[in-house]
Amino acid sequence: MRETRLHTCMLCEAVCGLSVEVEDGRAVSVRGDPDDPFSRGHVCPKAAAIPDVMEDPDRIREPQRRDGERWARVGWREALAEAGERLAAVQRRHGPDAVAIYLGNPTVHGFGASTAAILLSRALGTRSRFSATSVDQLPQMLASLEVLGHQFLLPVPDLDRATFLLALGANPRASNGSLMTAGDVGARLDALRARGGRLVVVDPRRTETAARADRHLAIRPGGDAALLLGLLHVLLGEGLARPGRLAGFTDGLDRLEALAARFPPERVAARTGIAAAEIRRLARDFAGAEAAVAYGRVGVCTQEFGALASWLVLALNVVSGALDRPGGAMFPSPAVDLVPGGSPGSFGRHRTRVRGLPAFGGELPAAALAEEIETPGPGQIRALVTFAGNPVLSTPNGARLERALAGLDTMVSIDLFRNETTRHAHLILPTAFGFEKDQYDAVFYQLAVRNAARWAPAIVPPPPGVRPDFRVLLDLALAVRARGGGRPGWRTGLGLRLARALGERRLLDRALRAGPRRLSLAALRRAPHGLDLGAHQPRLPGRLHTPGKRLRLFPERYQADLARLEADVDAPPAAGTLLLVGRRQLRSNNSWMHNSLRLVKGPAACTLQLHPADAAARGLADGSLARVRSRVGEVRVPVSVTDAVSPGVACLPHGWGHARPGAALGVAAAHAGASYNDLADEERLDALSATAALNGIPVTVEPGG
Ligand SMILES: Nc1nc2c(c(=O)[nH]1)N[C@H]1C(S)=C(S)[C@@H](COP(=O)(O)OP(=O)(O)OC[C@H]3O[C@@H](n4cnc5c(=O)[nH]c(N)nc54)[C@H](O)[C@@H]3O)O[C@H]1N2
Ligand SMILES: Nc1nc2c(c(=O)[nH]1)N[C@H]1C(S)=C(S)[C@@H](COP(=O)(O)OP(=O)(O)OC[C@H]3O[C@@H](n4cnc5c(=O)[nH]c(N)nc54)[C@H](O)[C@@H]3O)O[C@H]1N2
Ligand code: SF4
Ligand SMILES: [Mo]
Questions:
Q1: Is ligand 3 within 6 A of the CB of residue 47?
Q2: Distance between CA 380 and CA 377 in Å, rounded?
């Protein structure tokens, strides 16, 4: 029997509503749900690949145990008991911090998984906590913590009402938007321009988004903080600042003005690669637009000046009055509000043992994981739990991390596949995926351009040997605790047993009822296409979490990093080196969907883009193989010559590199590509926030034989 069921895509932040044809318990086709008021029927090519992942012959369908290089099936009871005992034994012997946990990106793509993953983290009682945050949005969360008082108070561009979008280091036409959940973001960008609005993109590459913008400014990698100071210089120096009602509760405007005064466009032009006249024009256009908003994303965060640049994006929105104004950068009012209950966040409360790098929100930078495993001494990491992550391909110097993982006493991975990371585990615990799970995106409705909510129940049964994430995470936590693991005195907040007994649905129902809109699971069930909860309303100063509800425009924290910025701004550009930047691709999703033939067939996607002049200077032509070297490693990849990248810039997508031995991903291995993060340097960090500076890596490129 064939029936149409509704679900929500769990792959990227756009949370598209899906209409799925189900036949005999199998999803046979996936389309956009035209009746979803938020995504309006939009989907991208990845949605069709969800069933590919569910039915992938390489998917792990029963717990597996590794003995040397051999893998064998093991029952759940035995697997959980053994995982619990192995982890608890390490903690009993070496202390709670000897067990680390790494939470990958899909953790935030579901209410049940994220809730249970936090509980497992707390149950382990370890300070050795890592996640994808420190290779992603950490600088934006830090800016929100410092300026607004809460790490989750992330302002979102009010895309549907803006008349001028300044996008830095973001490519929503490929990524479908990030920290800006927007169904059919391409159509929303088109609509902005159709109503007379303007889109200006700042990116070292003429991206898919830049190619359809009013203006593209090809910035030199890492130049954003300098550019933003140049813009602020013009705004503040020419009397164009319009903080409006924000001025009534903002501190530090005078100090920001004094800082910006030191950065006239003429001073930053060489560092940014953007002419002073262009910077002045941009500042005036931005100030003159009715509803302008600045938006920065991955390219602004994962670079050498990620923290300063992310702060200055927010500062530009304050100075121009865009913050909390319709058409500006606004704060959603989601049905499940993560701000009041969630921890406001912290920075530098503890540090890594080896390099002394700061924790953010209790998490240590992923760039430090390998050395914390390798370096002996008290607190050395001897065991690792990974959940829905692939740090060997997604964090800097993956090759080193891989060697470190091989030396662990114990590793337990909760994942769908035996991939480049999980193949080092001693036990892999497989979970339900896709349409086999309920879907509610608490995190992404907190980041949506319009208030919305959509809940979908699982619509097909999982393979009999797998279990829901929620249950596996809690059962693992209980198994470790039962054997004397964890940290005495550390509580999980919500009890593990209680959480397990209540189950994911009742916990969600509670969270919805406690939320500001007093919704319930029943209310969401009655609206299977999703609820439109309206446009954003101004929420400041009420929503600020700072003492006295003041907006701290110039937090002390950033002062310390300004000397480094000034030195960089005035340094002459190094001649001859190429700077490597990343490239997200519509048909690829971080490191883990390359086993879907439908997505990887066709011309190779993992190519190094070079400007024609740079290619010619190195004797490289389109399609020829290049050897790319950085301080930490080298890869060989085919070249694709294009003037979309600026001279001096080389561009490579991340998440590839599937030729490593030991993984069980047949299709991906046949379309292996090379891993960007074999070039990314674990010592190249944004010095202030310890976020990995994955972009702007100096590399040499030569013919690769
Ligand atoms: N198809 C697809 N969609 C995805 C993902 C995916 O892998 N594939 N991943 C998802 C995830 S986890 C995230 S976090 C989001 C990310 O979403 P985005 O941030 O929109 O994605 P990117 O394409 O990485 O955009 C970063 C841009 O920064 C540019 N850049 C590099 N260095 C600099 C610099 O120094 N300054 C400036 N101004 N720009 C620079 C790069 O050229 C690139 O175009 O995408 C999500 N959506
Ligand atoms: N050079 C470079 N590196 C980057 C980036 C970049 O732009 N450039 N981007 C960074 C960013 S923004 C991010 S978010 C990270 C992502 O980095 P990670 O989070 O470490 O890795 P992913 O590639 O997202 O891998 C997700 C894993 O989760 C598994 N998985 C998927 N769905 C589920 C599920 O429902 N349940 C379970 N149990 N497992 C599941 C997949 O099989 C896969 O193993 O990469 C970062 N690394
Ligand atoms: S845009 Fe994102 S949420 Fe929408 S179908 Fe594609 S991957 Fe899924
Ligand atoms: Mo990400």
A1: yes
A2: 6
Task: Report in angstroms the alpha-carbon separations of 77 from 103, 426, 651.
Answer: 23, 16, 47
Contact 192, 162 (CB under 8 A): yes
> Which atom of ligand 3 is least distant from the CA of 11?
7
Q: Are 268 and 305 in contact (CB under 8 A)?
A: no
Tell me which CATH homologous superfamily contains domain 143-333+545-559. Answer: Dimethylsulfoxide Reductase, domain 2 (3.40.228.10)
Question: DSSP for 35-99?
Answer: T-TTTTT---TTGGGHHHHHT-TTS--S-EEEETTEEEE--HHHHHHHHHHHHHHHHHHH-GGGE
**pLDDT at residue 579 in the model:** 98
Distances (CA, A) of 543 to 50, 274, 353, 523, 537: 38, 37, 36, 26, 12
CA dist., res. 391 & res. 621, Å (int): 33
What is the structure's pLDDT at 341?
A: 80
Cα–Cα distance, 702 to 634 (Å, whole number): 11
Task: Give me the residues of the chain with pLDDT under 50, please.
Answer: none
Instruction: Label residue 61 exposed, middle or buried (CB < 10 Å: 0-12, 13-18, 19+).
Output: middle
DSSP strand E in 282-426: where? 292-296, 329-330, 347-351, 358-360, 383-387, 410-414
| Residue with token string 């296409």 | 529
Closest residue by Cα to residue 125 from 104, 105, 108, 101: 101
* Contact by Cβ (8 Å): 593, 642: no
CATH architecture of 64-136+338-513: 3-Layer(aba) Sandwich (3.40)
User: Are residues 591 and 599 in contact, defined by beta-carbon separation less than 8 angstroms?
Assistant: no
Q: Tell me how far the alpha carbon of residue 703 is from its chain's centroid.
A: 33
Residue nearest to atom 7 of ligand 2 (CA): 582
Among all ligands shown, which has an atom nearest to the Cα of 596? 2
- Structure confidence at residue 489 (pLDDT): 85
Measure the N-to-C terminal CA separation of the chain; round to a whole number of Å.
Answer: 55
Question: Which ligand is nearest the CA of 419, by number?
Answer: 2
The domain 574-703 having CATH identifier 2.40.40.20: the answer here is yes
Label residue 590 left, alpha or beta by phi (over 0 means left) and psi (-120 to 50 means alpha). Answer: left
Residue 340 neighbours by CB under 8 Å, 6+ apart: none
The four Cα atoms 209, 212, 217, 221 give a dihedral, to 10 degrees, of 20
592 CA → ligand 2 middle, Å = 7
Atom of ligand 2 nearest to the CA of 431: 38
Ligand 3 centroid to 34 CA: how many Å?
14
The torsion angle over the Cα atoms of residues 124, 127, 132 and 134, rounded to 10 degrees, is 170
Q: Which residues is 465 bridged to in the sheet?
A: none
- Beta partners for residue 129, in sequence order: 101
Q: What is the DSSP letter of 431?
A: B
For position 30, what pLDDT does the model report? 98
Question: For residue 582, how far is its CA from the centre of ligand 4 (angstroms)?
Answer: 12
How do the domains of the chain map onto residue ranges?
2-48, 64-136+338-513, 143-333+545-559, 574-703
CATH class of the structural domain 2-48: alpha beta
- Nearest-CA residue for ligand 3 atom 6 is 44
Token readout for 117 is: 């993953």
Q: For residue 470, what are the contacts with CB-CB under 8 A and spacing of at least 6?
A: 112, 113, 115, 116, 503, 504
**Residue 477 confidence (pLDDT):** 98
* DSSP per residue, 161-217: T-SEEEEES--HHHH--SSSB-TTHHHHHHHHHHTT-EEEEE-SB--HHHHTSSEEE
* Amino acid occupying residue 690: A
Structure tokens at 213: 């913008």
Distance CA 499, CA 511 (A): 13
